[in-house]
Amino acid sequence: MKALLIIDVQNDFLPGGSLAVSEGNEIIPVINHLMPQFDLVVASQDWHPADHGSFAANHSGRNPGDAITLNGQPQTLWPVHCVERTQGAEFSEALDCAPIDRVFRKGQNPLVDSYSAFFDNAKQGDTGLSAFLKERGVTQLYLVGLATDYCVKFTARDAIGEGFAVELVVDACRGVDLVAGDVERILRELESLGVEMITAAEVV
Ligand code: VGL
Ligand code: ZN
User: Fold this and answer.
1) What are the chain's domains?
2) Distance between CA 140 and CA 166 in Å, rounded?
3) CB of 95 within 8 A of CB of 89?
4) 175 within 8 A of 37, measured Cβ to Cβ
């Protein structure tokens, strides 16, 4: 049983948003086309309280991109993004949300960031995604969304750790590339962990 997991296709991660991933919008028609090919479609949604510790604005004298320690965990600071109940946290209007069976929110604890759709960065909080997929008999998980070098990467690693066969649909993901080459390097690293790289045309 295969499922499609759509990671963080939210306004703030799209062109015009506060943490825009360049060309992020280009993946939306690809994802819309993929959804009907799956028995089960789930999505993750970055969903932060306004006082979240990953926001540079909540640390005096800090800027986005700075590296700090947050509650004992290494933390990259970000612009304010995906604040709960704001337009920036909504899924893109261009995304066809009707086929999405369940949404898993993450990043609600202000003291710890949560890149993965499964667990927070401290590996303590659990969104319930793994149990949900296993209950539904999912063995193969196809990943699409934003951003390749953060949330997609952490989700892919946890999915492997949870025992799923993981396919990353490369043309249905885009990355931040904070340092040029990050995305390519991360794809190779994920491949070495057992993640299969495929294109949308190869999904059948
Ligand atoms: C993400 C940075 C901060 C992502 C979320 O969805 O990749 N990146 N929060
Ligand atoms: Zn976030």
Assistant:
1) 2-49+86-203 (3.40.50.850)
2) 6
3) no
4) no
117 pLDDT higher than 90: yes
In tens, the pLDDT along 96-109 reads 999 999 999 999 99
Burial category of 18 from C-beta neighbours within 10 Å (exposed 0-12, middle 13-18, buried 19 and up)? middle
Ligand 1 pocket test, candidate residues 46, 73, 153, most atoms within 8 A of CB: 46
Give the per-residue pLDDT at 36. 97
Distance CA 20, CA 192 (A): 28
- The pLDDT of residue 178 is 84
CA 140-145-150 angle, to 5 degrees, is: 100
Q: For all residues of the chain together, what is the average pLDDT?
A: 97
**Whether residue 46 has its Cβ less than 6 Å from ligand 1:** yes
Mean pLDDT, range 168-190, rounded to an integer: 95
